[in-house]
Design goal:
- The chain has two domains: 6-95, no CATH class; 99-201.
- It is built from seven helices and six strands.
- The chain has helices spanning 6-28, 34-50, 59-72, 78-95, 99-112, 141-146, 165-174, and strands at 116-121, 136-140, 148-149, 152-153, 157-162, 193-197.
- A hairpin with a 2-residue loop joins strand 3 and strand 4.
């Protein structure tokens, strides 16, 4: 029975891919171009998928990355993708705080940066926030009050955000939080995107990555 989490599997995959790329370059004793690196990693992912080297939790990721590499070549930047995965997933492994504390610390930082932050409103229908262009974060009051217990996140929380995505991702990571990839369709706040945080950072799919 495979008890690995998605986080563990995607980090294992990224580390293995970079290690095999480095080992191959050392064997060839030549500096590889980005196009050659992408070609190697694409083939490596094809073989990994075929051999079921990693848990099926990342099968859809591998399929998508292979498709990307075949259509974009070096533009797929597979090496950079794997490096970003290693950086972020190792970062939360080393620094994971109680996520309730992390979320509240992030909120305080955003307020200091003049974001509009609302955590005291029940979000049950589509709402509009007139923020006059300011970055903003809205969290449903029930989720904010009921999904954190003893400083720990016990259920997922939706974050409705209008802001620079990379800035948000960087700030969240600095407080030990992984964010889901954004979803505009599920947002209950007009002109905002939905991000989710999960207990123990156990995202069910690839998190929002830094560029």
């Amino acid at each position: 029975m495979n008890s690995q989490t998605y986080n563990q599997v995607v980090l294992e995959l990224a580390i293995a891919g970079l290690a095999d790329l480095t080992a191959s370059a050392q064997t060839k004793k030549a500096q590889r171009t980005p196009a050659q690196e992408s070609h190697f990693l694409c083939n490596w992912m094809v073989e990994s998928l075929k051999e079921k080297r990693f848990s099926k939790l990342v099968a859809d990721d591998l399929t998508a990355w292979i498709r990307l590499a075949r259509s974009q070549g070096a533009g797929a930047e597979l090496k950079h993708l794997l490096e970003r995965i290693v950086y972020q997933y190792q970062a939360i492994e080393k620094t994971e705080p109680a996520l309730g504390i992390g979320l509240n610390a992030m909120i305080e930082e955003l307020k200091q940066a003049q974001w509009l932050v609302f955590t005291d409103t029940d979000i049950t229908a589509k709402l509009k926030l007139d923020g006059d262009g300011q970055s903003s974060l809205v969290i449903d009051a029930k989720e904010f009050n009921q999904h954190i217990k003893d400083d720990q996140l016990i259920k997922p929380i939706n974050l409705y955000v209008r802001a620079d995505e990379q800035q948000l991702t960087r700030i969240a990571l600095s407080h030990g939080l992984l964010l889901s990839q954004s979803n505009k369709k599920t947002s209950l706040i007009k002109h905002h995107k939905t991000y989710r945080i999960y207990p123990h950072n156990q995202q069910p799919a690839l998190c929002q990555l830094l560029a």
